[in-house]
Amino acid sequence: MDTLQKAIFRADPDLSRFDPLPRIFFFDRFNRGYNGWTTLVGNYEDNIDTMHPGYQQITAPMLSNLSHWDCGTHGAMSGTYALKLATQARAAAQSVAIKRITFQRACPIKLEFYFTFKPEASTLKLSKLDLRSVGLLFDLQDDTSRVMPHLRYLNAHSDRSAQRWQYKDKPVDFERFSDETVTHYHLADQDWVDLPGDAQELCYNEIPTKVNWHYAAVGFDLRTMRYTHFQCNDRIYDMSGVGSLTLDAMPNLRGMLNVVFFAEANADKRAFFYLDSVVLSGDWD
Amino acid sequence: MLQESHTAVIARGQHWRGEVATEPYEAAWAKEAIFFLRALKVEGSLQGTRANIQISADGIHWADEGSSLAVPTTAGEVTFCRISHFGGFLRLVVALPEGARIQVVASLNLKA
């Protein structure tokens, strides 16, 4: 990015808290609406009951003003509303939101977002272990491969705190409906691997109705289909040895650039994943 | 700028029996809403059964809003209910008669 463009980006109070690549695919501030983020539905054919149970459970994302029973409206980081993913009130329940675009050219891309997470404040407890994870993935396809880089922040699992970022690179078997349609549930709570390095404590605060916003950035190169960067707040991870879930290219998906966020409960209590704003940028001329 | 509009599918092919509540949906940004209920399959008699709209300040504690919509009695039937001035959180609750089942698509159509 040249000096002039950087100065222009930094002069924009909304954009200055991000560090994007020169081209911006989208800059979504959820105070301005849903911006094309929608429910991830699984594939099905003829009958909706054929949808994989992992996808059947997924609820619709919503615009939340983070209102709580004790303090009222908490609000988002850059306005009143944030995008909220909410699981059902069941341990291991997941919810997923997606935005679907394509890329013009294979190039480096960068996803940046401000986020926070909490379990539903349905009990007067700290509830620190009640949310299992929040995470993201890209769903990409070039001429030869479908590549799905997955990352999650494992907050807790069962009765133990984890506070670690993890990745997944092991493909999942397909279930075939017909010659045209298949499904695979790649978000299951298995085959996650710790990223290199120590655990990372994120500010959880002291009761379930107090939230603090965090920053994360993921760099990925569509030419090599490898990570180039991952950062959460002040922590930068070595992604050189980190792989992605990779499959043979599939029909009808060439050029796909989907961005997905997901949340997972660790108790019979809803898990909430809030996104204040998201920037996806790229570097092409 | 155009005003926001959004359709959230709050029950997608769910099989309902007995007492049911949809997941809480936050819509403080919206001024008006329509709940749509469409039956994919029906077993038993649902004649006279109504789904009640509830509102909440926090998504945890609920009160009847006072409006309701008929639960469809045959596959393919669509019912709806318009509401406004509902605050933050919305959901549908219904108690189905003994022996009755319904598979539904429930949607919430929202406008600022």
Give the percentage of residues in beta strands of chain B: over 45%
**Chain pair forming the biggest interface:** A-B, 26 and 22 residues
Whole-Å distance between the termini of chain A? 11 Å
Q: What is the top-level CATH class of chain A?
A: Mainly Beta
What is the assembly state of the chains in this entry?
heterodimer
End-to-end C-alpha gap of chain B: 12 Å
In helices, the fraction of residues of chain A equals: under 10%
Count of DSSP strands of chain A: 21
Helical percentage of chain B = under 10%
Counting structural domains of chain B, the number is: 1
The average pLDDT of chain A is 96
Structural class of chain A: mainly beta
What is the number of E strands of chain B? 9
CATH-defined architecture of chain B: Sandwich
Structural features, described:
The complex is a heterodimer of chains A (285) and B (112). Chain A is mainly beta. Chain A has a single domain (3-282), classed as Jelly Rolls (Sandwich). Chain A has helices spanning 3-11, 53-56, and strands at residues 23-29, 38-39, 62-64, 67-68, 72-73, 82-86, 94-102, 108-119, 131-141, 145-148, 150-157, 160-168, 175-176, 182-183, 192-194, 214-221, 226-232, 235-237, 245-248, 256-265, 271-282. In chain A, the strands form four sheets. In chain A, strands 2, 7, 9, 10, 11, 12, 15, 19 and 20 form a nine-stranded antiparallel sheet that branches. In chain A, strands 1, 3, 6, 8, 16, 17, 18 and 21 form an eight-stranded antiparallel sheet that branches. In chain A, strand 17 (226-232) and strand 18 form a beta hairpin. The longest helix of chain A has 9 residues, at 3-11. Chain A is globular. The N and C termini of chain A lie close together (11 Å). The mean pLDDT of chain A is 96. Chain B has one domain (5-111): Jelly Rolls (Sandwich), CATH 2.60.120. Chain B has no helices and nine strands. In chain B, strand 5 and strand 6 form a beta hairpin. Chain B is globular and about 45 Å long. The relative contact order of chain B is 0.43. Chain A binds chain B through residues 33-34, 39, 41, 48-49, 51, 56, 59-60, 62-65, 67-69, 80-81, 84, 86, 88, 120-122, 270, and chain B through 4, 6, 8-10, 12-13, 23-29, 40, 57-61, 88-89.
